[in-house]
Amino acid sequence: MANPTKYAGTPGFNVSDDVATIPDPTRSLRENHELVQDLCRYAENLASESAVRKKWRLDEETWELLGADDELVRAVEEERTRRVRSGATKRELAQQHIVRGPNVLASIMDDTKANARSRVDSIKALDALADPGPEAAAAQERIFIRIDMSADTKDPKDVVTIEATPRPGTPKQIEDDHNEAGDEWRR
To answer: Which of 5, 28, 68, 100 is the most exposed, having the fewest neighbouring CB atoms within 10 Å of its CB?
Structure first.
């Protein structure tokens, strides 16, 4: 009888009678960056356990497996450090707290015993929060470049439009009255 050789093909596609190895169930979850971010938010008290489990459809057994996976815990801690350094944690915490602001402003506005100036300031702040409108948008210089390559076909797919903002420090315009002796050759 011939000596049986070990399968040397693509892993996971061995159809021999040998017992297949069971893949690590947490491996794919460990490599999912979005799940690691959500678990980091849970660790930072920005998301609840039920919200994370519901989003990822994690049962109790899988949740316990994830908690016992040292590599996943390390990945969550690294993500947590990265988020603190980038300021993402601070921004998300501020966003959670700022939503209480309109209620506080409304209570100041409705308080008849409050100073009139405080009431007027709270009305102005609520108005700004309610509809910032076009006055809140900063006036920016925009550059539009339109290149029409359609020639005689007039196909709209042959038109390229580029919208950009100038870099800071770029001169706003070239002055025509700039006359130096060495500039005559440019005209």
So the answer is: 5
